[in-house]
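Hello again, I could really use a second opinion on something today. For a while now I've been wondering how a particular protein folds. Please have a think about how the structure follows from the sequence. Here's the protein in full, and shout if anything looks odd to you:

***
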Amino acid sequence: MARKKKELPLLEHITIEGLASEGKALTHVDGKVLFVPFAAPGDVCDIQVVRKKSSFMEGKIARLVEPSPVRTEPFCPHFTICGGCKWQHLPYDLQLQSKDQVVRDALVRLGKIEVQQYLPILGSANTERYRNKLEFTFSHKRWLFPHEMDEINARPTPPNPMELAGLGYHLPGMFDKVLAIEECHLGAPIMDEIRLFIRDFCRQYPEDYPYFDLRKQEGLMRTLMLRTTSTGETMVVVVFYREEEEARVRLLTALQERFPEVTALLYVINSKANDTIGDQEVHCFYGRDYIEEEMEGLRFRIGPKSFYQTNSQQAYELYKVAREFAELRGDEHVYDLYTGTGTIANFVARQCASVVGIEYVPEAIIDAKINSEVNGIDNTLFYAGDMKDILTEDFISQHGRPDVIITDPPRAGMHEDVIATILRATPERIVYVSCNPATQARDLQLLTASGAYRVTKSRAVDMFPHTHHIENVVQLLRCEG
């Protein structure tokens, strides 16, 4: 006989003390830390405990007894449900303070790093409509609100399948359900218009455009990727599960006619078990197979598989900080690790003698080379492959010892072999750009452990307002002797 679970308590009139990591707030109850999402410092609320461990608890707001004076009104009706923005209820200056503190805590407490100078965090000029890339999922099973469930259950006949289907964001913890989005305040308005047009078109012909069932691996409409640039260009990538030529052409033709301003109208046939398209062929239905972003007169080509910072305006501020920390005089040999489409490499190429860029994704390296070519930059070299396999002592012997290394790794940070090679390369300066302060702190600890380098500057740059995510740039200088 299964042991009955112990009922978790409802805690009444609890005051929220502050903000924690991962977008949560915290308080203390009976000597334990209690983490609560969507709460604000100063809130008084009744909290239903949902998880209880020996050293901490997790809960959710059951009733907001007295709102905090710092609370703001969320601007999105999907807030608290879709899982994207977790801080719309907080003023932006408080978000920045919290993010800056997260960076400092990571460097000091996790990495035990002594930073000589913290520069003020750079906030985003735009806190809405700042994302240049959004990805949506077609699902035969969308999230239904209680009132919708009641209304459907009260009917004498089953609902139309399209009533249960949705095009939107995956809900946290529910891999096969999406929240159907009416308006997303993160992307440009044309992203909403295109998504809703496709949704309404599919609803007209439900037999021809069934939404995908991830569990049964059946259906036609799979995912939708939308990208925009500050130059006014738009990319649409529609992913189908199988080739249904007549249906595919009809949908894409209607999309082309309704949105002639779309620069790149692309499609993918993805019959795999998962939604990733990195290993799939992308077909161009109309226009170009890329869009272009602009920065300081440089144009950067972005393909459907290319990585580019999702906040174009703030990406410029981030790269300016990286370039400033590199302290280029014009004669340096620079390595740009995890170069992506070569954005940083080409951005700094005019201020140094040469740049070598390394990136895992071959398609991104193709774009990086093209970006150099279209901008008339002839002092860059790019290589594709796993960083720990490419960046070796033989590679450095062949291409020259770097004076400056700029590294912008993924959230997991750098492999220990890569760090070891960097240390053996002995660059004068290292600029570490990170989207994860915790892994950055871990890597900085390894880079400074021998005493060969010291951390001189740190500056956080907020790319993602209303979320807990933060970018941080650190400068390391080689110690004399």
About this structure: Residues 346 and 372 are 6 Å apart (CA to CA). The first helix runs from residue 92 to 110. The radius of gyration is 25 Å. The chain is about 25% helix and 30% strand.
